Amino acid sequence: MKTATFLAFAAIGKLAAAHATFQEMLVNGKSQGSTGVRGTSDQNNPILSTAADLASDMMICKGGSKVAGSVSVASGDKLTLQWHHNNPSSGAGDADEPIAASHRGPIIVWVAKAETEGKGNAWVKIQQSGLSGGTWAVDTFRSNAGKIDVTVPDLAAGDYLIRSEIIALHEGDRAGKAQLYNGCGQIKVTSNGKKTITNGANIQSVYKTDDAGILFNIYGGASSYPIPGPAVDAGFGTGSAAPAPAPVTSAAPKPTTTKAAAPVVPKPTTLATIVKTSTAAAAYPTKGSSTGSVARWGQCGGIGYTGATACVAGSTCQKQNDWYFQCL
Ligand SMILES: [Cu+2]
């Protein structure tokens, strides 16, 4: 009985978790529906930044296999990659649409020849956006309702995979705890440009658990962030990837005690100090709540967090770090 209840909530949590998937393409603003969108074999669950996960097949296209059809584009077209929290989307009333606000981090877009199926040295990075003026790529992505805009590079004609990727760093201060999301679209480039992919990156070895941009504390007041992986490939890149910063949102508070701290390596002892001096400790949840509304895996507390703190029955609010408490 108890086991059955636990499993039932685990299943609900899996669906309700505040993650995201890639679901639709638009060309010059016109929806192409789900044509060419590869699904995922693991719903909206994250790939973690463990060595095993970073080398797994999930890194290629989130386990999504080839689908019939593709979206036709030409060099210079605006291709939009639309993500949502749930599939089908639970709509604007969902506070975690298109992804939970806690999931701050960079957004990166890659292209590979379709015939590679994303394996080996297949991928060229064409766009990336990290932290700019205090705004994370994920903040902008949320204000853009889950849309990632890409200008189609001057690629040779043919079939390609376009892969957008979100790296959520809300628990990135601990090794193996960053959450990676990706999704692939099948596109057919109809213009015949100059660029061909000869020696790209292997997406299954491009990130390491302790890369400076993977093991990164977003709560330390850093003013810059090193996006992991290679630079945007010259010639493929479509200019500054970062969309204009969104108006100031409710960014997580930046403790003044760390303002001068340049190092991005998390220091647990420093964090402990911050907690003691912070006035936001009241945001911490009541321990042991068991009849609340926060779904399993959802955020339930932490400095700067103002949402519900009581977890649904069967899960309890547990501290992941000072800024992120989660129902588990
Ligand atoms: Cu998540």
UniProtKB/TrEMBL annotation:
Q: What keywords were assigned to this record?
A: Carbohydrate metabolism, Cellulose degradation, Copper, Disulfide bond, Metal-binding, Monooxygenase, Oxidoreductase, Polysaccharide degradation, Secreted, Signal
Q: Which superkingdom does the taxonomy of this entry point to?
A: Eukaryota
Where does the record locate the signal sequence feature? 1-18
Quote the EC number. 1.14.99.56
GO CC annotations, alphabetized: extracellular region
- Just give the chief location class: secreted
Protein's cellular compartments: Secreted
Q: Which residues form the CBM1 domain?
A: 292-328
GO biological processes: cellulose catabolic process
Q: Does the keyword Disulfide bond apply?
A: yes
Per the record, the similarity remark reads: Belongs to the polysaccharide monooxygenase AA9 family.
Enumerate the PANTHER family for this protein: ENDO-BETA-1,4-GLUCANASE D, PUTATIVE (AFU_ORTHOLOGUE AFUA_1G12560)-RELATED
Domain statement: Has a modular structure: an endo-beta-1,4-glucanase catalytic module at the N-terminus, a linker rich in serines and threonines, and a C-terminal carbohydrate-binding module (CBM).
What this protein is reported to do is described as: Lytic polysaccharide monooxygenase (LMPO) that depolymerizes crystalline and amorphous polysaccharides via the oxidation of scissile alpha- or beta-(1-4)-glycosidic bonds, yielding C1 and/or C4 oxidation products. Catalysis by LPMOs requires the reduction of the active-site copper from Cu(II) to Cu(I) by a reducing agent and H(2)O(2) or O(2) as a cosubstrate.
Q: What is the designated name of this protein?
A: AA9 family lytic polysaccharide monooxygenase
Provenance organism: Aaosphaeria arxii CBS 175.79
